[in-house]
């Protein structure tokens, strides 16, 4: 390609870009504003300025906010409009992000999709399950997917509406149990990225390290609601950003672990690409993300699961996840001797 390298930075040459490059660039930029907290802020700020002197707009929003306050814990919005936007497909095609189905999901059951690894911001899960960008509506036509994320996100004006339009809901117990049990529907699937902020600190290209050994809340919820457990692994999720080296015990890691405990955010120091050049920035690199959806593990509903029942199912889950990883790793660029590390 004829990108120009000036001052050690690789600038994008838009004039020689192919139609595919232009489309996927548009998809990437659009989803920067939709998915990133920072991107949302850039959109919200001018709106705030606009409405500063207009009390009517502010009052109308406050009324809406109050009216809509339970959506994130009661299954989210019904409308699927934003999830079908064409720009989502361009975004998924950027990496490209793809779903690989290994078994059917029957609409007679509900599911918890336990997704790994978290990566820096889980682009694969966003592209594949929050949008129809890679065709999830065709791949699992009878299942309704919702992505679960931190309650904090639904407190922020505009960000909450954006996330809800993309099918995101609160990851609290109350919210999960509402969708999988109380609302009485079937064919619902909740995607949970189990490792969270802790796992993001291990998201270095080429690594496969999960924070999962002591995370059992999702197993308990599966038992409580009788939802089948589906292991999901996104090959390539850790490859879309470089992260500054932070081995356990280093000063940086110690600080990051501290920040995570105090603020709930893990502050990985990352580098990807920028809007105009490919050398620095917070946009992800163009590397494939292959999300393999495993076969569901059947779970029968238990009113009060005991510690032993939870541990047994967790053990079985880990076994199935490792099997899934090993069965598919070589197809998606992982060496046959590479093991999944579970911390
Ligand atoms: C979902 O995406 C697939 C593949 O891109 C497309 O063929 C299909 O029409 C889309 N479905 C809806 C309902 O938008």
UniProtKB/TrEMBL annotation:
Coiled coil: none
Pfam families linked: DAGAT (PF03982)
Swiss-Prot/TrEMBL GO biological process terms: triglyceride biosynthetic process
Recorded topology in the membrane: Multi-pass membrane protein
InterPro entries cross-referenced by the UniProt entry: DAGAT (IPR007130)
Transmembrane intervals: 41-67
Location(s), subcellular: Endoplasmic reticulum membrane
A GO term from the CC aspect: endoplasmic reticulum membrane
Gene Ontology molecular functions: diacylglycerol O-acyltransferase activity
Keywords associated with the record: Acyltransferase, Endoplasmic reticulum, Lipid biosynthesis, Lipid metabolism, Membrane, Transferase, Transmembrane, Transmembrane helix
Similarity annotation: Belongs to the diacylglycerol acyltransferase family.
Protein name listed in UniProt: Acyltransferase
Organism: Caenorhabditis angaria
